[in-house]
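Bug report (template v2)

What were you trying to do?
Predict the complex of my protein with zinc ion.

What happened?
Run completed; filing so the output is reviewed.

Input:
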Amino acid sequence: MHELGITRNIVAIVSEHAGENQVKRVLLEIGKLSAIMPDAIRFCFEVCSKDTPLENAELQINEVQGIAQCQACGAEFEIDQLFGRCGCGSNHIRCITGEEMKIKEMEIL
Ligand SMILES: [Zn+2]
């Protein structure tokens, strides 16, 4: 489960920013194409946040829809996987959003 390593990183980064302060809320953005399971992150967060400034913090996760742009005609459309075909027939598409995993916000008490 690679979510454990990812969650450890998140906790480490947020802890560093929080310093001695207690973290109240963390907002993550997880792309639907990133192969990261939000439920697994939530589960790992419970474990990883113990004895850190993030203990008992509220974890919010925004899932980001995958969007690709066709390199042939420029059209943008939603995708559920990294490979797809544009309405114009071209399969030369580039993913714009949906692969990211980032810490969007953190709230400190
Ligand atoms: Zn196209």
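What did the reviewer find?
Residues 70, 72-73, 75, 86, 88, 90 surround zinc ion (CB under 6 Å). The longest helix spans residues 3-18.
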